[in-house]
Design brief:
The chain has about 190 residues and is of the alpha+beta class. The chain is built from six helices and seven strands. The chain has a single domain, classed as Alpha-Beta Complex (Maf protein). Strand 3 and strand 4 form a beta hairpin. The structure holds inosinic acid.
Length: about 190
């Protein structure tokens, strides 16, 4: 089974492709610009994006699309940057976020991923994944992308950027949401 993941983020794609291989699912990358509406809801952002991309690719004979929208929610900052994580990463970056947390004892944070699948035969379906952890004092590690060097999930001594893809997939918000998608796809295929 082949599914098409619309993302320009190579790190995300690599994580999802690695996870999918253990379910016998092939993931292809659709490097199409994802329209990101401004909203406080990752669900709303990804639903809008999946519909837009689906309408664009259906005429090219591609009949399924997956999009994912994710964000880092920091408790002491009342959930900031949340749905604005991509913009915050591009502007103030990892160092800027650490600066906002200078002298702050509460380092609790979580990543959330919302994955939306759409196809003509299976319709639209949303899957979510959350990983709780904390923001470390200094960036650590060389792997991954985005805020990986400053996020350490509970249950590990390593930040995401100190983990291989396989290790990150044992914890991450993305792997949780995509695992649900892959299990569901397998169950739907076995019914046909
Ligand atoms: P988007 O889902 O592509 O809009 O990305 C949101 C932003 O959140 C990314 O640009 C990253 O900065 C951050 N982000 C989302 N998931 C992760 C992750 O797994 N590790 C590190 N940063 C992430």
């Amino acid at each position: 089974m082949i599914i098409y993941f619309a993302t320009g983020n190579k790190g995300k794609f690599h994580e999802v492709k690695t996870l999918a291989s253990s379910y016998g699912i092939v993931v292809k990358q659709l490097d199409i610009k994802k329209v990101e509406i401004q909203s406080d809801s990752l669900e709303e952002i990804s639903l809008y994006a999946v519909r837009d991309i689906y309408n664009k690719v259906i005429s090219k004979g591609i009949d399924n699309v997956v999009v994912e929208d994710a964000g880092l929610f920091i408790e002491a900052l009342r959930g900031f940057p949340g749905p604005y994580s991509s913009y915050v990463y591009k502007t103030i970056g990892v160092r800027g976020v650490l600066k906002l947390l200078e002298g702050v004892d509460n380092r609790k944070a979580f990543f959330k991923a919302v994955v939306v699948f759409k196809s003509s035969s299976l319709g639209e379906r949303i899957f979510k994944g959350i990983v709780h952890g904390e923001i470390v004092e200094e960036p650590r590690g060389i792997y991954g992308f985005g805020f990986d060097p400053i996020f350490k999930p509970y249950g590990s001594d390593k930040t995401f950027a100190e983990m291989t893809v396989q290790e990150k997939n044992k914890f991450s918000h993305r792997s949780k949401a995509f695992t649900e998608l892959f299990k569901w796809l397998k169950s739907m295929v076995s019914k046909t």
